[in-house]
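JOB MANIFEST
job_type = single_chain_structure
chain_count = 1
residues = 209
[input]
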Amino acid sequence: MHFKQAGKNIAGKAELQKMFGGESESREGPEVRKENTLLLRFFPTSKLRNFRTYQLILLMQEAIKELEQIIIIYQPLLEKIDTASFSLKPLPNKWSKKEILGHLIDSAQNNIRRFLVGQYEDQPHIEYNQDQWVTISDYQHYDERDLIRFWVLINKHIIRILKNTSSHAAKRLVRKQEIHSIEWLAADYNKHLLHHLHYLLEMEPVPYP
């Protein structure tokens, strides 16, 4: 089963293409730098600023719509896992499916901090010890239905935060092991989420990072 990325037909994309011509994709890295260099040759600074703002809006909208779809698609799949399978640890030092879901909740908590603190502090450094969080939280003995509800609610909270994040705030930077913008972290959060969900549900692997 493949998860098809949501948000490809977002309102505003057609307007962006009309303003600047051609296909606009949300990308990072050298391609964006090359694209921006070319844009500087053809568009005045004020119009280019509008282009970049539209890029950020589209990328954040896609991340939000994708996360909404992840909840809709994967919640019922998680609810079908039987109790024994949820709690089974493949090895004493390996996480059970319950603990993997717990790790996704921890990831959500720490990304909430990045999405929030990054909007009012300059390049806050936010990391965490994943194994310690899972152990101390004792997800292995959590009621699985409560755990699933917890995962759903915390991701709905992330959606609310991202919807309330301005295009200006989305450009602000946060430090993990490397420095990234909030809008980049929002897209990366979904990739990490899908990677672990597919492993947990024994579906086709989703590479990460």
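[summary]
Residues 7 and 65 are 6 Å apart (CA to CA).
The longest strand covers residues 173-175.
exit_status = 0
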